[in-house]
Amino acid sequence: MKRTTPRLAWSAALLILSVSLVAAACGSDKTSSSSGSTSTTTTAAGGSVSTDYSKLSGTLNGSGSTFQDAFEQKALTEFKTKASGVTVNYTKSGSTAGKTDLANGVVQFAGTDSTIKPTDGLTFKNGTPLYFPIVAAPITVSFNVSGVKTLKLDAATIAGIFSTKISTWDAPEIKALNPTAKLPSAPIAVVHRSDGSGTTSNFTKYLTLAAPSDWTLGAGDTVNWPATTQGAQKGSGVAALIGSTPNSIGYTDLADAVTANLVYATVKNSAGNYVKADLAGSAAALEGITVNADLTYNPLNAAGAKAYPITSPTWIIVSPQQTDPTVAAALKGYVGFILTDGQKFANSVGYSPISTDLDKKAITQLDQITS
Questions:
Q1: Does residue 168 sit in the same domain as residue 279?
Q2: Mean pLDDT (whole number) for 143-149
Q3: Are 255 and 155 contained in the same domain?
Q4: Are 233 and 359 contained in the same domain?
Q5: Is residue 199 one of the residues assigned to a domain?
Q6: pTM of the shown model
Q7: Is the dihedral of CA 26, 31, 36, 38 positive or negative?
Q8: Is there a single domain that holds both residue 329 and residue 217?
Q9: What pLDDT is recorded for position 15?
Q10: Does residue 228 fall inside a structural domain?
Q11: What pLDDT does residue 7 have?
Q12: Is residue 45 within 8 Å of 356, Cβ to Cβ?
């Protein structure tokens, strides 16, 4: 289900800055060449994908993460220009729904910002899904307070606000971080995701890591939010509710925050610096990450002076054993495209590309998709 709203109104200056900073941080140096209908893309680390797009056909259906939706929509559109015989559909339904759809065989791939846990109770008939990291981006702490355009927050204060222990905008904890801001005495309207969400999972994981004594609601795709808070479905729903609710605050992906013209806080990172939720900050958070054998990783509360602390990873997951060779070939072609040519336009839709080393590992894993 494609978005109809134009995704990001980046200014030329911001886009140029983000691209240059992310390129430097991630070390991406990807080149591509094509000959006829065969496109070969090579990464700086030496990984490569050679695909004859003219031989690919069929329909691929995916669902899941709303966080990665803007990138997915761009990717499937660009992929169509190379593989005209393949139709790719992606429905933003939330990470929980995407994982469930893949387990039930409703889709050929799913988008998720959170990993599969035993407590999810999912059984995958065609083997344990493969994780393909695709991009990363900030989760913003967006707010709507008249007359306030800048706001500094640390993990303990964010935890207090979202657990409703801090209930008014002029609370001492917020004023201490923002002594010159004209904060009203109005109650804080907390907005969160009401559907199962990888964004919720990563936001609450961050609070668990960075403010363990202040955050007591746990972490996961869903949590038991206080009754006085407000829920909305999908990142776009959260962004819209923040925008229409005075004195509100909520968490949503950068793409939806920018589309809704929201303002968002700078957040204190583990180095003690207040960092803006932008692509340079998310790229810095990817530096020095530990990558697990299954290509999962955690950039939350990352070390580094410039790292934005609430940076979310996101993956495409697929079952390794496909029953249809046509589907297997199309899947390998689409995911391979995202890991090569697709990395080049990540910045333009509000995401940081993955590191070249991680990209190479993901490319190598493509051969595990068989029929």
A1: yes
A2: 97
A3: yes
A4: no
A5: yes
A6: 0.87
A7: negative
A8: no
A9: 39
A10: yes
A11: 40
A12: yes
Name the amino acid, one letter, at 299: P
The answer to whether 241 touches 216, Cβ cutoff 8 Å, is no
Give residue 37's pLDDT. 54
Shared domain check, 187 and 240: yes
Burial classification of residue 166, based on how many CB atoms lie within 10 Å of its CB (0-12 exposed, 13-18 middle, 19 or more buried): buried
User: Residue 342: which residues within 8 A CB-CB, separation 6 or more?
Assistant: 71, 75, 78, 79, 134
197 in a structural domain: yes
- Residue 119's domain spans which residues? 54-134+314-368
Note whether 101 and 152 are same-domain residues.
Answer: no
Condensed to tens digits (0 to 9), the pLDDT of residues 270-315 reads 999 999 999 999 999 999 899 999 999 999 999 999 999 999 999 9
Q: Is the pLDDT of residue 36 over 50?
A: no
Secondary structure of the chain as H, E, C letters: CCCCCCCCCCCHHHHHHHHHHHHHHHCCCCEEEEECCEEEEECCCCCEEEEEHHHCCEEEEEEECCCCHHHHHHHHHHHHHHCCCEEEEEEECCHHHHHHHHHCCCCCEEEECCCCCHHHCCCCCCCCCEEEEEEEEEEEEEEECCCCCCCEECHHHHHHHHCCCCCECCCHHHHHHCCCCCCCCCECEEEEECCCCHHHHHHHHHHHHHCCCCCCCCCCCCCCCCCCCEEECHHHHHHHHHHHCCCEEEEEEHHHHHHCCCEECEEECCCCCEECCCHHHHHHHHCCCCECCCCCECCCCCCCCCCCCCEEEEEEEECCECCCHHHHHHHHHHHHHHHCHHHHHCHHHCCEECCHHHHHHHHHHHHHCEC
CA distance 145 to 142: 10
Structural domain tally of the chain?
2
Same domain assignment for residues 192 and 72: no
Q: What is the pLDDT of residue 39?
A: 60
The pLDDT score that the predictor gives to residue 4 is 40
Q: Answer yes or no: is 319 within a domain.
A: yes
Q: Given the structure tokens 């969160």, which residue do they identify?
A: 192
Burial class (CB in 10 A: 0-12, 13-18, 19+), 303: middle
Amino acid, single-letter form, for residue 140? T
Q: How confident is the model at residue 50 (pLDDT cuts 50, 70, 90)?
A: confident
User: How many residues in the chain?
Assistant: 371
Task: Indicate which CATH number applies to the domain containing 67.
Answer: 3.40.190.10
Same domain, 144 and 276: yes
